[in-house]
Automatic annotation (TrEMBL):
It comes from the Eukaryota. InterPro entries: Papain-like_cys_pep_sf. This is Ubiquitin-like protease family profile domain-containing protein. The lineage of its organism: Eukaryota, Sar, Stramenopiles, Oomycota, Peronosporomycetes.
């Protein structure tokens, strides 16, 4: 590749014989017009933003197609968010009908929510942008924001539990919880075991007030009893992108004390249903924060420009 780099240079330097023998099948030559010297970083930023939005729109379309499948044909019964989605205790046929209703709720949110929409947990502690949901919750890897949001939803609905953020090792120790440790049964902490794999640390607390014995957690004046660490290796993810989903499902299984998840294998259909319930919890079982006046005005201006250009 050769490039014209001078204002008076109208053609690139010719490749000599030695350069042509470097294993290239074809000689690729790019010429930059000297009139483009005023090209600045603003152009690069604008193009980056454009193609990022283009990728988000494509992901949105794929997610919509995924949500619009016929969920009444999906034969899978999972525990995750069964109480919140009103599927607990239902017969299989009724569960599948409820799946379709949950999917329809999510589809309506996808159709009406701008990408800059923000969803907030009912405890008002965590938020998740709609642009972070697109391309992830339906079929992709879960990032730290999605994992934290879903775990906070579990902790908030079950109670007597505490969730430590995935960013604990980065932002430092969290603020002290408002509830006393005596009334806390579980502490869950999602951890990134590697660059692309999630794990979960679950701690169960037991406090004997009479003998001043606190199991696991250390407090001044209390005798400490630490139980052996138990490693849970089942179930395993059926693909290479569902570890975050199983971390959330595992936390729900522990905190509800059912422990049935460890007794069965997990199929891709099960993971799909788990993802559907997670999406519903985020977009339909949370608070929706409206866009700022600035964002709304900017969106209207962009819409007007598009309508003007496209006729």
């Amino acid at each position: 590749m050769t490039v014209a780099t001078k204002a008076d240079q109208m053609f690139p330097v010719k490749l000599d014989k030695n350069m042509k023998k470097q294993g290239l099948m074809n000689d690729v030559v790019i010429t930059i017009n000297p009139k483009l010297w005023k090209f600045s970083g603003d152009y690069a930023c604008a193009m980056t933003a454009f193609y990022d939005m283009k990728a988000k729109c494509r992901s949105w379309i794929e997610d919509r197609k995924w949500l619009e499948q016929d969920w009444r044909k999906i034969d899978s019964v999972v525990e995750l968010f069964d109480v919140a989605t009103n599927t607990a205790g239902l017969v299989p046929d009724a569960v599948r009908i409820r799946y379709q209703e949950v999917a329809n709720d999510a589809i309506s949110k996808f159709a009406s929510s701008p990408l800059r929409t923000t969803f907030v947990t009912r405890s008002n502690t965590l938020w998740l942008g709609f642009d972070n949901i697109i391309g992830a919750l339906c079929q992709g890897w879960l990032n730290d924001s999605a994992v934290d949001f879903c775990l906070e939803a579990i902790v908030g609905s079950i109670g007597q539990s505490l969730m430590l953020s995935t960013l604990l090792g980065v932002v430092g120790w969290p603020t002290s919880p408002k509830t006393q440790i005596l009334y806390t049964k579980f502490i869950v902490h999602p951890v990134s075991l590697s660059a692309n794999h999630w794990g979960l640390i679950t701690v169960r607390l037991y406090c004997d007030v009479a003998t001043k014995t606190l199991q696991v957690q250390v407090f001044i004046g209390y005798q400490v009893t630490i139980s052996p660490v138990e490693r849970i290796k089942t179930p395993q993810q059926p693909d290479a992108i569902s570890c975050g989903v199983l971390v959330i499902a595992q936390a729900y299984s522990y905190l509800t004390e059912s422990m049935r998840l460890q007794e069965h294998g997990v199929s891709k259909r099960d993971v799909g249903v788990m993802r559907l319930r997670m999406i519903w919890m985020v977009v339909s079982h949370s608070k929706e924060r409206s866009n700022s006046v600035y964002d709304a005005d900017k969106a209207n201006r962009i819409r007007e420009l598009l309508q003007k250009q496209l006729g």
